[in-house]
Automatic annotation (TrEMBL):
Residues 3-252 form the NAD-dependent epimerase/dehydratase domain. It comes from the Bacteria. GO terms for cellular component: cytosol. It comes from Pseudarthrobacter chlorophenolicus (strain ATCC 700700 / DSM 12829 / CIP 107037 / JCM 12360 / KCTC 9906 / NCIMB 13794 / A6). One of its GO terms (biological process) is galactose metabolic process. Homodimer. Gene3D superfamilies: NAD(P)-binding Rossmann-like Domain, UDP-galactose 4-epimerase, domain 1. The keyword Isomerase applies. This is UDP-glucose 4-epimerase. It is an enzyme of class 5 (isomerase).
Length: 337
């Protein structure tokens, strides 16, 4: 099929473009490059031997999105494009609501006009909020506790209402846990702009000498080693989960929700130790105050993705750290030359 991937130059997007091409699909990418580099697509082409068609387009520009669809013969869409920093969303909610909601509404309106109704949406475990028991299960009530998470939740609601109103839609809502790692070639990987918000890219930048030390946000949680537990998932497994969901909805109308996670929690210190093993030397860190908004622990119930999609994670935290380190070591400044 010909698949449009929005946000396809980003971390998860670029890995998914590669998996789609390896599965035999043709890929068109829309990205506004606000938080990523087109270099990632050049490297994906090097790995797959296939060029993805690229359009430097912002989804808030509906006319430009319309131009991409006109005559393109797109069969389905995987939608990653969106702002995704929780802290920034608290400081700048309007930017997040406008970009994430208007961009998505433009995209689905253009899809509808072109009779393209197979849609895989990049949602997030953050929609489960702070009141659900762990492990998180798809049928639980959701309630995000930050503007970024609320944009994901509201887009899930929009898509759910659309699917209820119009049975021609085939929609997968994928709730990611904590994506980590890189393609084993070390040629593509996570390249956050500015100071990384997330744990593993920050550790990787300490290891490669770009940052002085890791600040561990809290060592006094009610967990085995006092640090928070999260469900880390290799970005390669995550990309395969998108291909599996796309295949599932290609043949079925309706709205489907799946957690994409390992079903296991790992602590901050466990991940740090694993990364030190990959690097082969200690990584400096300091345990500091808790970060506002962090939950002590959460991980996925991954049963339904296995039952419905035949998909489950295959890679360990050690493999995630080895692959993440190979990318960072070979690309100390990310995609910047
Ligand atoms: C993991 C753990 C931190 C950085 C976030 C978003 C979520 C999703 C995934 C988009 C926590 C600790 C982190 C650091 C640390 N993103 N940490 N020092 O918060 O589970 O989820 O990313 O969808 O929406 O909320 O991931 O990597 O930020 O933190 O100690 O420098 O690492 O306290 O316990 P999180 P994270």
């Amino acid at each position: 099929m010909k698949i449009l991937v929005t946000g396809g130059t980003g971390y998860i997007g670029s890995h998914t473009v590669l998996s789609l091409q390896e599965a035999g699909h043709d890929v068109v990418v829309i990205d506004n490059l606000v938080n990523s580099s087109e270099e990632s697509l050049r490297r994906v082409a090097e790995l797959s031997g296939k060029e993805a068609e690229f359009h430097n387009v912002d989804l808030v520009d509906e006319a430009a999105v319309e131009q991409v669809f006109a005559g393109a013969g797109i069969d389905a869409v995987i939608h990653f494009a969106g702002l995704k920093a929780v802290g920034e969303s608290v400081r700048e909610p309007l930017k997040y609501y406008y970009n994430n909601l208007v961009g998505t509404l433009n995209l689905i309106r253009v899809m509808d006009r072109h009779d393209v109704r197979s849609f895989v949406f990049s949602s997030s475990a953050t929609v489960y909020g702070e009141h659900n028991p762990i492990p998180y299960v798809e049928k639980m009530e959701i309630g995000a506790n930050n503007p970024y998470g609320r944009t994901k939740e509201q887009i899930e609601d929009i898509l759910s209402d659309l699917g209820d109103a119009d049975p021609r839609w085939h929609i997968a809502l994928l709730r990611y846990f904590n994506p980590v790692g890189a393609h084993p070639s070390g040629r593509i990987g996570e390249d956050p702009q500015g100071i990384p918000n997330n744990l593993v890219p920050f550790i990787a930048q300490v290891a490669v000498g770009r940052r002085e030390k890791l600040m561990v946000f809290g060592g006094d949680y009610d967990t085995p080693d006092g640090t928070c537990l999260r469900d880390y998932i290799h970005v390669e497994d995550l990309a395969e989960g998108h291909v599996a969901a796309l295949n599932y909805v290609a043949g079925r109308a309706g709205v489907f929700r799946w957690n994409l996670g390992s079903g296991r929690g790992s602590s901050v210190l466990e991940v740090l130790r694993s990364f030190e093993k990959a690097v082969g030397e200690p990584i400096p860190y300091e345990i500091t105050e808790r970060r506002a908004g962090d939950l002590p622990a959460f991980w996925a119930d991954a049963a339904s993705a296995l039952a419905d999609l035949g998909w489950s994670t295959t890679k360990t935290v050690d493999q995630m750290c080895e692959d993440h380190w190979r990318w960072q070591k070979n690309n100390p400044q990310g995609y910047a030359s």
